[in-house]
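We include the entry.

. . .
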Amino acid sequence: MHLAASTLATSTRRNLTTRFRRVIDSLGQLYEFQPQAVACDAHPDYMSTHYARSLPLPVVPVQHHFAHVLACMVDNGIEGPVLGVSWDGTGYGFDGTVWGSEFLLVPPRPEDRGREPGARFTRFAALRSFPLPGGDRAAREPRRSAVGLLYEILGGGLFETQDLAPLTSFSTGETKLIRSMLRCGVNVPRTGSVGRLFDAVASLTGLRQHSNFEGQAAMELEFLTAAEREDIIPYSLRPRRPASQSGGRITDESLGSAFCCRLGAFGSHSNSKRV
């Protein structure tokens, strides 16, 4: 079974790479251009990154959320200075965490000096990160985001609580495994992703524990709250360090208390069954 799975994965990857190259070649012929450089996602393991580095051209890695901001700037015909807000599910972060709640400051004439390679922006603000048990599996299991978020707030005491929707959705064996993963820091990358935060809220309110596609839980949460609420829930932000030491970077150190205090506002409006 292992050999068959490995063969299938390798074959699928090879087919995707072949199609990827064909599309790029077709675009080059269609627009009659010869590239002088190639830009790719900053994630070192993406297929597009490997392809870019295989070409005899200068490679410009671009951070995922910065690419979103740049696309909006181009689409609207504007230049810096710009404060771009990019909230997304997953993006490779230069600090070793999964980004996804970014406030990126783009100067009038971006330069790389003093910043991450290929970044050309200042990460001005982001939400506090939390552990994501199981890594990529959390994109299809909102309950994992919920457990990781509450573990960041409550620590091991989380598993002493009763009747929490995300915890009751796991079997006893699964709960023990996840508890061990979190305690030992194994396969629990940290994320500040707003997408995973929305997934966590959907799980904690009992809206959805499993998703059929990435973003499903967040979309359903949006539809539910849009129909029920028009007011804005207060939310406080505090600097992690003095602005003079951190370049003005703001992070949410009160995520735990603010989240716990405001969760009831979401839960009181949720009448949907658990999925």
